[in-house]
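In the previous chapter we treated chains in isolation. Here, by contrast, the input contains two separate entities that must be folded as one system, with a combined length of 974 residues.
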Amino acid sequence: MFDVAEIGSTLAKEDYKARMPDLRARLLEAQFHLRRKDVPVLIAVAGDDRIGCEELIDRLNEWLDARYLDTQVFEEETEEERQRPRFWRYWMALPPRGRAAIFFGGLALDAIADRYLGRIDSDGFAARMEHVRTFERAIVADGMLLVKIWLHLPRQELRRRLKRKDSGWQLEQRDWIIFKHYDEIKPLCERYLQETSAGGAAWTVVESTDARHRDLRAAEHLLAAFTARLDEADAAPATRTAEALKPAARPVDVLGSLDLSRRIAEEDYRDRLEDQQRRLHKLSLRARREGLSSVLAFEGWDSAGKGGAIRRLVWSMKAANCRVVPVAAPTDEERARHYLWRFWRHLPHAGKMLIFDRSWYGRVLVERVEGFARPEEWRRAYDEINDFERQLTDHGSLLLKFWLHIDKDEQLRRFEERANTPRKRYKITEEDYRNRERWDDYLMAVNEMVARTGSTGAPWVLVPANDKRAARIQVLTAVCDGLDRLL
Amino acid sequence: MFDVAEIGSTLAKEDYKARMPDLRARLLEAQFHLRRKDVPVLIAVAGDDRIGCEELIDRLNEWLDARYLDTQVFEEETEEERQRPRFWRYWMALPPRGRAAIFFGGLALDAIADRYLGRIDSDGFAARMEHVRTFERAIVADGMLLVKIWLHLPRQELRRRLKRKDSGWQLEQRDWIIFKHYDEIKPLCERYLQETSAGGAAWTVVESTDARHRDLRAAEHLLAAFTARLDEADAAPATRTAEALKPAARPVDVLGSLDLSRRIAEEDYRDRLEDQQRRLHKLSLRARREGLSSVLAFEGWDSAGKGGAIRRLVWSMKAANCRVVPVAAPTDEERARHYLWRFWRHLPHAGKMLIFDRSWYGRVLVERVEGFARPEEWRRAYDEINDFERQLTDHGSLLLKFWLHIDKDEQLRRFEERANTPRKRYKITEEDYRNRERWDDYLMAVNEMVARTGSTGAPWVLVPANDKRAARIQVLTAVCDGLDRLL
């Protein structure tokens, strides 16, 4: 696909001078309107022409309003970054709505370099590209205007530059490497570009032999992308066909098969609790030493006992090694980004345990059932979540997801008990009672969630919780077993 | 001050068991109410008894609701942290309103260890404690409930523990160091505690010979602090005496002495602009190589030309080495913390330049004049700002602050010009005209700001800006000179 970009296009200085002022004015204006419409913009710049990329990025910073534009250069991973899944640094650098960012290198060059240097094999390369596609699809679906520009330099031009004395100060070792191994690197680039051009995330290849031609082409392409998006936003919003809450096929009722009558006697409970807590204490110290991170997600009916189960975990560990994040309404910084961002941002350092009290599954549970997310939003969430979780487990983290299950009668009993206990009264609201009316909708959503997001690497632990003691022992044991398996 | 904490207090198991349940219930309840009242809580735990601190922190995580409590252990600085001023990591770890955090070690142990290890001399130790006082005063004034607990172990008890075989697994090399150099370390601790106990930030020293006594005393102290704060919040808010907008003494009118008639001819401008931009390009590359960070703050009248001056800076540098942060309304995550937090969070990596388009000076300008900040808030801001800036310059960063000055007639001319230029019309609003009515109040606020926050290390660059060309040249030159001085 580079052949079309090896035609030696050039642009005369006069032509450039005649056309750029108007282009720049229109680009700036379009950026302003995108900001007013709260559109986030991501401009990915990569290519086999490193110097050309740097020059183009400097130009973009001249043309656009730099106050609303961040340039992110992705070099070797830092210590902070290495402790998280690979895409963490891309997620953290995503522009919020109304701002723009340039990613230099990033996803593309990281993948190609890792493959070229043998850090990943062919399968790993394919898997990486699949992550890239999912990532880009997710942010585009969430409203990101994504523009991807690849600068290509024909080999003979690279040779010419390397031999020119006067440009020597700009050239680095790695430019020579690209030149010497061009035949090996080029097919990797081509494959990457082909396989990551799906949907709203197509690459535009620009020949960078001539700087003026390169800059003008890039500016035109950007302006076209900005304008298209603005026109789209100006058009009347597409009338959405009312999509049903129901899934395509009714999922298997996995919850219905749980044995809620299970009980543990008080005495037995004390012994087993102590055993498992002692076990968790030791395992968590070992996890800390060996750098094994854990991410636990707790979901369940209101009053199913998430809090109590989480406390038993926390009490078993050194406080410094463990953190609980209660998930409530997102902050406005979180609302300005893809819904998964608020979970990515908390991912723990090596060796620590992070416990989410409610989690990213809110998207396919409460947001789905209550209509806070549109059907196309929660429907695509299953894939986004699966990709997120695969990144966690590929990174080597322990990931466990708990659904604490009680029946409707038990819930009512607990609500009434709380209402009668002064210290617990604040825990119960009108809304809790209202939610009961949609029990069956939630039940269906949970069943579908478990069916679509459970996997060997990221299993759902379904916990019958009518008996709190049995539930706590099961949770503790599952966490210990999980750590044991990976240590 | 440790003598009173060496009386060998112990607590019988029965007494502990009899008193703790009620204490715990009340602590939990108080934490809940503090959360509901949006009070942020910071519990600093430090001491010469490392193991005792760790045990107490684990206890606190049991007693309190761990979902709203983060435990921050401050160990050796990470690479990320070393690239910022020392207090950056404390600022970043501050709990937002409604949450609680435990700082283990942190400010106290960092200071004492740095002094003991000879990383700072006696003056450095004094300066550090002054920063601590300013930091704690700032967060307390902002509403933080700060509780500081120091665990003290008498030397004979430490000796006893070190000799006990069965506790050997918990002991580390550093416990032996404390023991061997107790006589040198103890006076440092005492001095630190004395000098950082001012105002609402007093240390409570607890003897930790006996674990039960230690835990009960800490719990009681915490509960007392929580309760006092809740009682205070319940009381009717103190009627604030109407404080005048006016400063104590009318500051010198430094702005009035600026020569606004200065002009640069077009041709001269082109040459000098190119010279300075070329110079900045080179200097910024050198700064990047040598790890010199810069922080620039731009303030000035509406339409004084901040944007244009900033653009000339940005255009001179590689985009990746420079970032502009436009300061508008704070996000809700920012509003949940001290007003300086939103500036600390952006502080750049080593070698980069960060440009604030409007800055922390909003506190003593627009917030003061428009009444968004209460008089006691903007009055204490001068000290808080001076301390913040001293940390930046002590860290070795270049800090420059620009006030772009035009007169009232020139502003009106520019407003009208903008209103008549379609592309610039959006830049002008009703509010801009309204702000003109308070010109004299702003003038006074600017004069006081310059008088109270200008210093050799953090100078104000006052820029007559009726002529945009002259203003841009002055800004560019000042930045170049600043870099030159530090490189």
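Residues 19 and 457 of chain A are 55 Å apart (CA to CA). The longest strand of chain A covers residues 145-152. Compare these points with the single-chain example from earlier in the chapter.
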